């Protein structure tokens, strides 16, 4: 059997397999070993599992590009395994739009196949359905096509991200914002952790996205967590994931944000509001590059660049005992302080023009202009809400004022 496989394998050798990660799940040792030998010889990285339960655990602990699974197996059959993988896929798509980059294609194999089972498997989300006895020609072609399909999905995802990123700008020419832009350009290509500080509404999230988009991880996921918006009792599950039954409401296994960001960037916004327990686990994750899901004792390796942001003075929070000093030093490798709008009022004319054009396009209305007196009136205001407040005011003026916005309009609506 191996000799038969190997003769065909020689014909396909030499293709570009980019060290794709494959998982073979079959309760017949002979089939597992033969397929592993052939696919490894083709240049793929291949793991094996002897049943569905073990295969599911491996698929949850490591990202695979393609999974081959037998259907008839003890403990958990292939259809049940597929159902678990599809549910995991759905939950990750709901929690982040970047999961497609890590999604595995699934091919089911059986010696007792029928049309109804094949149709059901494809409807559930399987890429293909193969019958035993296996034909190597079909296996290698299916492998090649499945990986190409996954690659196309990734490329489409990346193109969407790049198009969206084109609208992401840091507007301004003041010395303060130019300094921030200079630091971003220097730190983005590195793997250094960055702590972004500044008042609410200054654009800390924009800084994080610009760092990611200019980094070597730009084609990987960018996963965001607002630590202030998640209840303290759920933050650990959100960051590190959980196992089914680990707490009330944990109805299925779930990957956390660290796993979802594997190969990319994790942005921890408002990290100053994170609980002490979660801080301890984040520190461990940064030290060891691995996490453990809630309810599990199994460590999962992760390759994540962490960016963090806060509007709090973490030095004062450390003095109060609210924030771990060792975590602060882990995060604060490169500090970036984003200035308040009141510190860069010379940028307001450019910001007004930028937001005005953006809002008019969004609203589908003709472009409007601001006279010089209106601009000066905006520059003289106290911007406690920073950039976010300025954009809201401009939107209000565009909707309520005339074609040329005046000082009187600013006084009436700002």
Largest sheet: spatial strand order: 2-1-3-4-5
General shape: elongated
Radius of gyration from CA coordinates: 26 Å
Residue runs with pLDDT of under 50 for 5 or more positions: 1-18, 93-102
Q: Class of the largest domain in CATH?
A: Alpha Beta
Structural class: alpha/beta
- Specify the number of helices: 17
Q: In percent, how much strand structure appears in the residues?
A: 5-15%
CATH superfamily of the largest domain: P-loop containing nucleotide triphosphate hydrolases
- Strand segment count: 14
How would you describe this structure to a colleague?
The chain is α/β, with parallel strands linked by helices and 414 residues long. It folds into 3 domains: 2-162, Response regulator (Rossmann fold), CATH 3.40.50; 168-339, Rossmann fold, CATH 3.40.50.300; 343-413, Helicase, Ruva Protein, domain 3. Helices cover 48% and strands 14% of the residues. Strand 9 and strand 10 form a beta hairpin. The longest helix is centred in the middle third of the chain and has 30 residues, at 136-165. It starts with a helix and ends with a helix. The relative contact order is 0.09.
């Amino acid at each position: 059997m191996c000799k038969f496989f190997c003769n065909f394998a020689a014909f396909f050798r030499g293709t570009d397999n980019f060290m794709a990660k494959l998982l073979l799940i079959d309760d017949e040792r002979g089939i597992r070993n033969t397929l592993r030998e052939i696919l490894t010889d083709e240049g793929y990285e291949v793991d094996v599992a002897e049943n569905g339960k073990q295969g599911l655990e491996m698929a949850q602990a490591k990202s695979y590009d393609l999974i081959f699974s037998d259907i008839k197996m003890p403990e958990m059959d292939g259809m049940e395994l597929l159902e678990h993988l599809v549910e995991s896929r759905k939950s990750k798509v709901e929690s982040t739009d970047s999961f497609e980059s890590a999604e595995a294609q699934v091919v089911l194999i059986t010696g007792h196949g029928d049309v109804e089972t094949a149709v059901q498997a494809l409807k559930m989300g399987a890429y293909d359905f193969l019958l035993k006895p296996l034909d190597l020609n079909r296996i290698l072609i299916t492998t090649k096509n499945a990986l190409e399909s996954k690659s196309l999905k990734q490329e489409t995802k990346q193109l969407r991200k790049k198009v969206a990123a084109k609208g992401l700008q840091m507007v301004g020419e003041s010395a303060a914002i130019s300094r921030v832009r200079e630091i971003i350009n220097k730190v983005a290509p590195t793997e250094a952790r960055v702590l972004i500080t500044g008042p609410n509404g200054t654009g800390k999230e924009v800084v994080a996205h610009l760092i990611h988009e200019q980094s070597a991880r730009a084609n990987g996921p960018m996963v965001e967590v607002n630590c202030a918006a998640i209840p303290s009792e759920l933050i650990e599950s959100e960051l590190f994931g959980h196992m089914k039954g680990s707490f009330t409401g944990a109805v299925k296994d779930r990957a956390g944000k660290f796993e979802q960001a594997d190969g990319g960037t994790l942005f921890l916004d408002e990290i100053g509001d994170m609980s002490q327990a979660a801080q301890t686990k984040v520190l461990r994750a940064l030290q060891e590059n691995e996490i453990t899901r809630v309810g599990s004792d199994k460590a999962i390796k992760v390759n994540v660049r962490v960016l963090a942001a806060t509007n709090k003075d973490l030095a004062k929070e450390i003095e109060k005992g609210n924030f771990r000093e060792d975590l602060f030093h882990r995060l604060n490798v490169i500090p970036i302080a984003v200035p308040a709008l009141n510190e860069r009022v010379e940028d307001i004319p450019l910001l007004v023009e930028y937001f005005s054009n953006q809002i008019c396009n969004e609203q589908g209305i003709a472009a409007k202009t601001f006279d010089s007196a209106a601009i000066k009136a905006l520059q003289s205001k106290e911007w406690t809400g920073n950039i976010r407040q300025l954009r809201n005011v401009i939107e209000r003026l565009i909707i309520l004022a005339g074609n040329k916005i005046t000082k009187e309009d600013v006084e009436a609506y700002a």
